[in-house]
Amino acid sequence: MSETEDFLTQEEEQEIVQAIAEAEKNTSGEIRVHLEEHSDKEPLVRAQEVFFALKMQETKARNGVLIYIGVHDKHLAIIGDEGINKVVENDFWDCTKDIIISNFKERQFKKGLVEGVLRAGEQLKKHFPYQSDDTNELSNEISKG
Q: 65: which of 2, 78, 112, 125 is 20 to 30 A away, CA to CA?
């Protein structure tokens, strides 16, 4: 098995998917988690490529958030689309990243991702509250590359 396959159990993946659904319940924003083994690129550069490959820039309000994990390389990047980046504090992604990293250092990978997803959801809720006509524009499943 690869490190990516061993990173989370199926049950842990489902708990993260549930956290994404919970976070998105109160917002029109969209959150995705992407895992991959290795990339020769800088984490933010690779995260941007994945963001576009997952078509996250196509949300109506441009309020998608991607949490990118390079498992073998121990890389983490969080990026938001232009809609969310215009309204959050400058250090927002760093604060969210710190929450995830502190859990990862304790090998609490699922807990770190759940807490990061829920923090992103809180911020999305503040700036992009749920509207009655909102639809889930992107899959909540963890993508892997």
A: 2
